[in-house]
Each structure stands twice: as structure tokens, then as C-alpha cells.
């Protein structure tokens, strides 16, 4: 955690390294299978997929902002929001990210970007309307913790690789159809099966990392600000307000759950294994422990 005052988290670092290693290994196997199945058509598939991956990584902040309808705001347009980010960045001794606002009533926030110097923190208008100043600073500190720990970049890569599997499958099938021959039936069966397996494993790995990184960001924010209760209050308030948001808005936001401060829930989760965030109770319990530790002589 050089160059920032956010508390280092070795558990998060080891999980990020493990996740990227396993996903990287998974995709080496996946590409190897495609090469074996496609023969001479594989260079085009790899070239296109590689180009898409580089574009996603390089422009991840813009893509996420555009997808959420976020617009970058200046200090003149949002002085209180910029003031809070300025104070926290000075406290954490880290570069200030771009600041954006998404016009939606879903109370939430997210951070994205490939590095600390190329990052963006976005809050929704619904969040700004509902939170007090200290609660907002707790949420912003949580998002800045994601940027400082670099888990935003890891999640961006890991999440896109699942999408990449689907893209490569479609290109592989098109290549097989264009080539013709008796192997078409085999391609139509094997490639989707391999792709589905890769997607499921990638999905589960990113979910496991996502849950831990939220706890790490809560911990980092609470220790940086010294006010775990403000973050706990914001969590409780946002989670309670989600039930009042129209289902249509929640479904629109749900694909971004892994990046949000709190999940946009549309119903009960089928399994804790599939959740993008730890439970509210677990997050509040951790903040309670930190509050007790900070209150000790």
C-alpha cells in the first residue's frame, strides 16, 4: 500500500493475486482448446479478442460511466462533493480521481479505473439526497479504498474475461460456419460447453473476490476516517432505502452490483455463493469491532 495512508490488507492482496492467477490459467486452457478445435481460424479469434480486452482495460472508466449514465462534474457544479473527495484524498495522500454523478434514484456509489491516476468515483443523485455529510464521506472513503488497493482494476479485468469467453465463442462459431465441413456439429456442441464452463468458474471467482474486497474497503474507510459509525449508518440507510426503489430501476443497476457500494437487490439471493457483497449484518459486525478497537486507550 505504498503512497497512500489506507491500511494495507495482505488478505486482499493475496486473494487478488490468486484470483488473477486462476483466471489467467483458466483462459490459457480455454484458448488452447479453441486453437485445437479451430485449426487455422484461431489467429483471427485471438486478435479480435485481444483487441477488445485492451480496449476494455484502457477505457474501463469511460465505459462504466457511460453505462451508468454518469457525467463528470467540476468543483463549481458539485462543490460539496468535490470538497469531500479533496479532504479524503489529502487525508489518504493519494491522487484525486475524476468525480462524477449518475442521475438515478438508486442510492449508490462506485469506483472504476485501471490505476490510481486513471480512476473515477461516481455517486448517484439518490445517494446525495439521502446521506448526511459524514455518511457521504464514509461512502467516498470506501470507494477510494477500492482505488488505493487497486482491486478496481483487478475486478475490471476479471469481470471482462467472463464476457470475453462469450465473445470468443460467437467468433469461433462464425469461423466454423464460414469454413464449413463436417466438424460444424462438433464445434456447435464443444465450444459453447467449454465457454459456459469458463464463464461459470470466472463468475464464481469474481464473486468470492468481490465479497472480500467490500469488507476490505469498509475496513480501510473506517480506519482512515476514524468514524466507523458514519459508514455503518450509511450502509443501514442505503440498504433500507433499496426496498423503496422501483424494481425497474433496480434491475437496470443490478449488472453493476460487483462494483457498487451496496448491491441493487431485486429479491432474495438464491445462494450466498452468488452474492456480490457480504451480508449487511457481517459488514456492520466488522465496523462494530473496529469502532470498539478505536475506542480503546
From TrEMBL:
<feature type="binding site">
    <location>
        <position position="146"/>
    </location>
    <ligand>
        <name>Zn(2+)</name>
    </ligand>
</feature>
<keyword id="KW-0645">Protease</keyword>
<keyword id="KW-0812">Transmembrane</keyword>
<comment type="similarity">
    <text>Belongs to the peptidase M48B family.</text>
</comment>
<feature type="active site">
    <location>
        <position position="143"/>
    </location>
</feature>
<feature type="transmembrane region" description="Helical">
    <location>
        <begin position="186"/>
        <end position="205"/>
    </location>
</feature>
<dbReference type="InterPro" id="IPR050083">
    <property type="entry name" value="HtpX_protease"/>
</dbReference>
<dbReference type="Pfam" id="PF01435">
    <property type="entry name" value="Peptidase_M48"/>
</dbReference>
<keyword id="KW-0472">Membrane</keyword>
<keyword id="KW-0378">Hydrolase</keyword>
<dbReference type="GO" id="GO:0008237">
    <property type="term" value="F:metallopeptidase activity"/>
</dbReference>
<keyword id="KW-0482">Metalloprotease</keyword>
<keyword id="KW-1133">Transmembrane helix</keyword>
<feature type="transmembrane region" description="Helical">
    <location>
        <begin position="12"/>
        <end position="35"/>
    </location>
</feature>
<keyword id="KW-1003">Cell membrane</keyword>
<protein>
    <recommendedName>
        <fullName>Protease HtpX homolog</fullName>
        <ecNumber>3.4.24.-</ecNumber>
    </recommendedName>
</protein>
<feature type="domain" description="Peptidase M48">
    <location>
        <begin position="75"/>
        <end position="288"/>
    </location>
</feature>
<keyword id="KW-0479">Metal-binding</keyword>
<feature type="binding site">
    <location>
        <position position="214"/>
    </location>
    <ligand>
        <name>Zn(2+)</name>
    </ligand>
</feature>
<feature type="transmembrane region" description="Helical">
    <location>
        <begin position="41"/>
        <end position="59"/>
    </location>
</feature>
<dbReference type="InterPro" id="IPR001915">
    <property type="entry name" value="Peptidase_M48"/>
</dbReference>
<dbReference type="InterPro" id="IPR022919">
    <property type="entry name" value="Pept_M48_protease_HtpX"/>
</dbReference>
<feature type="transmembrane region" description="Helical">
    <location>
        <begin position="152"/>
        <end position="174"/>
    </location>
</feature>
<keyword id="KW-0862">Zinc</keyword>
<feature type="binding site">
    <location>
        <position position="142"/>
    </location>
    <ligand>
        <name>Zn(2+)</name>
    </ligand>
</feature>
Amino acid at each position: 500500500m505504498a503512497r497512500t495512508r489506507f491500511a494495507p490488507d495482505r488478505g486482499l492482496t493475496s486473494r487478488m493475486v490468486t484470483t488473477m492467477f486462476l483466471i489467467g490459467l483458466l483462459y490459457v486452457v480455454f484458448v488452447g482448446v479453441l486453437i485445437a478445435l479451430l485449426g487455422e481460424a484461431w489467429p483471427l479469434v485471438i486478435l479480435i479478442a485481444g483487441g477488445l480486452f485492451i480496449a476494455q482495460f484502457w477505457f474501463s472508466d469511460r465505459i462504466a460511466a457511460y453505462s451508468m449514465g454518469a457525467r463528470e462534474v467540476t468543483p463549481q457544479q458539485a462543490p460539496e462533493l468535490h470538497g469531500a473527495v479533496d479532504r479524503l484524498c489529502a487525508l489518504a495522500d493519494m491522487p484525486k480521481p475524476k468525480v462524477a454523478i449518475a442521475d438515478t434514484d438508486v442510492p449508490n456509489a462506485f469506483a472504476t479505473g485501471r490505476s490510481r491516476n486513471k480512476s473515477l468515483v461516481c455517486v448517484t443523485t439518490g445517494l446525495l439526497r439521502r446521506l448526511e455529510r459524514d455518511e457521504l464521506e464514509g461512502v467516498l472513503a470506501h470507494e477510494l479504498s477500492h482505488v488505493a488497493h487497486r482491486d478496481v482494476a483487478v475486478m475490471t479485468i476479471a469481470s471482462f474475461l467472463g464476457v470475453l469467453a462469450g465473445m470468443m465463442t460467437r467468433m469461433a462459431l462464425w469461423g466454423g460456419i464460414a469454413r464449413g465441413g463436417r466438424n460444424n456439429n462438433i464445434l456447435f456442441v464443444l465450444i459453447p460447453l467449454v465457454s459456459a464452463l469458463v464463464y461459470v468458474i470466472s463468475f464464481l471467482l469474481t464473486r468470492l473476490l468481490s465479497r472480500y474486497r467490500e469488507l476490505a474497503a469498509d475496513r480501510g474507510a473506517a480506519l482512515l476516517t476514524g468514524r466507523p459509525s458514519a459508514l455503518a449508518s450509511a450502509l443501514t440507510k442505503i440498504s433500507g432505502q433499496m426496498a423503496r426503489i422501483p424494481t425497474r430501476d433496480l434491475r437496470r443497476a443490478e449488472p453493476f452490483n460487483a462494483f457498487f457500494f451496496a448491491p441493487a437487490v431485486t429479491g432474495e439471493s438464491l445462494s450466498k455463493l452468488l452474492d456480490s457483497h457480504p451480508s449487511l449484518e457481517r459488514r456492520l459486525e466488522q465496523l462494530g469491532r473496529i469502532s470498539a478497537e478505536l475506542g480503546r486507550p
